[in-house]
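re: ur msg from earlier - yeah i can do the NAI complex, just paste it... oh wait u already did. ok heres what im feeding in:
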Amino acid sequence: MKAPVRVAVTGAAGQISYSLLFRIAAGEMLGKDQPVILQMLEITPALEALKGVAMELDDCAFPLLAGMVCSDDPNVAFKDADYALLVGARPRGPGMERKDLLEANAAIFSVQGKALNDHASRDVKVLVVGNPANTNALIAQRNAPDLDPRNFTAMMRLDHNRAMSQLAEKTGKSINDVKQVIIWGNHSATQYPDVHNTSVAGTNAMELIEQDWYENDFIPTVQQRGAAIIKARGASSAASAANAAIFHMRDWALGSADGDYVTMGVYSDGSYGIEEGLIYGFPCVCKNGDWSIVPGIELNDFSKAKMAATETELKEERDGVKHLLP
Ligand SMILES: NC(=O)C1=CN([C@@H]2O[C@H](COP(=O)(O)OP(=O)(O)OC[C@H]3O[C@@H](n4cnc5c(N)ncnc54)[C@H](O)[C@@H]3O)[C@@H](O)[C@H]2O)C=CC1
Ligand SMILES: O=C([O-])CC(=O)C(=O)O
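and the outut:
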């Protein structure tokens, strides 16, 4: 049996975590041979609810669950963490854009970035889920100067999965036939779902769909899917968000599938002309516990314009939280 690893999850009594924690403890994130210690963070008033979640985790008798910590102190929850899933933040309601949450949520991520800097493993893999995810990831990263900026990522995988599913449905193929989808940029309504390099059962996706459907149906549907879920469910997506978090971390830790890309919000190294240091959605491959941006993808003018628009929004969000960026 492997030695247990420490997985910190914030917002542990919230909606997403109610799906996420159980799947982590079942071995779906790090493998069926990897014991985990769950280090769960909540705000003080939610500690009683968190106790109930911990009781249910106990009652699952998961063979891989090697321990649990419940705390309202990030310095405790992030102690020696090997993985940190930053979920805890306010969700949006109807009529809001995700960036409307910046004011409410940004401060959480500066505190947690500092706590990660001071207490987590030097190799900690951080995934920010709480919205606006890319800019919150930037805030956490900038408040953790002793950690490699590459350790901080934002969740774009839900958008990636949504795009795969829409395309499979439109073309009448299986999800397993869809390869190399890309979501460039921000996890927001400006994100750019790009299928120019995507294949469906071996055929280029652009040969299977009309430009009009691509521009006026597919792209807005993927961009607005979060809002559509909020409208239908009365609450923001939870189980599908937890699933995307599991996929993101699983691939980062254990490797992504050969011949495919995964979209991750990662620290830009200037690839594709995107300003260095922004947390931007790029096509990535993961190997040996590390990610890299897929190089050499050809871009037409349509794609370049869409990528620039979402980059501009990320710069504006960054400039709006300057006071939290040391
Ligand atoms: N990146 C993505 O693709 C997605 C992101 N989200 C975002 O994830 C976040 C969480 O969503 P839900 O679980 O539905 O919300 P929720 O409201 O059900 O749960 C959030 C939990 O975080 C806790 N929390 C608040 N401040 C905290 C802090 N400083 N430290 C620790 N815990 C704290 C709250 O007490 C609450 O239990 C939201 O910001 C939502 O917009 C949701 C879906 C997809
Ligand atoms: O739309 C929201 O506010 C929640 C979210 O990020 C998503 O479902 O993609």
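cool cool. The first helix runs from residue 15 to 25. ping me if u need the other ligands too
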